[in-house]
Write a structure and sequence with these properties.
This protein is mainly alpha-helical. The chain is built from nine helices and no strands.
């Protein structure tokens, strides 16, 4: 007859009661949260993130291929999926608040290796999105002037946004708020 420790290892290395316990001893679960952004900052950052260069630059091809009804149907379907995913993540964040990102939940409820892979996949996604955004903004600017080459506009905006990121959360939130208008 095995002990509880042996049964714990056979099931995956942790007890079921540990995976749903909202109080944990690790630093990721006990570090304090600092909320410096105001509600108006968060709302405009969310709106500005949705209505960005990708929507304006990428919607023309979708409009050409699917038409206005196809775009509306697709936007509604994707919006419903995103709503339920964010609702589920909000429920998790309310039940078990952590200072890390959503990968902390993957580590807590599934396995550390899934959290590791999810973190790198998320990093790769945002690196490619960032490269696409810099390319899109340089193409939009080059529509009006070709005085600076495309790589120059990418470099200019990269330096601007890196300086913005180094300025602190209040400055970042305020500038993002005004840029989203």
């Amino acid at each position: 007859m095995g002990t509880d420790k042996e049964a714990e290892v056979a099931v995956g290395g942790h007890r079921d009661s540990d995976s749903i316990d909202p109080i944990a001893s690790s630093a990721a679960y006990t570090a304090p949260l600092h909320r410096k952004l105001k509600s108006r900052h968060i709302q405009m950052i969310a709106i500005g993130g949705i209505i960005g260069p990708g929507l304006f630059v990428g919607s023309s091809n979708a409009l050409h291929l699917a038409g206005p009804a196809g775009i509306l149907i697709s936007f509604c379907l994707v919006g419903i999926i995103v709503f339920f995913v964010m609702q589920s993540l909000g429920e998790l964040a309310t039940l078990i608040p952590v200072t890390g990102s959503f990968t902390e939940y993957a580590s807590r409820f599934v396995d550390d290796s899934l959290s590791f892979a999810l973190g790198w996949a998320y990093w790769y996604l945002w690196v490619t999105v960032l490269a696409n955004e810099y390319n899109a903004i340089s193409l939009v600017i080059m529509y009006w002037t070709e005085a600076v080459p495309q790589w120059g506009w990418i470099l200019i905006f990269w330096v601007f946004f890196m300086a913005l990121s180094m300025a602190g959360i209040l400055v970042y939130g305020e500038i993002e708020f005004w840029l989203s208008l």
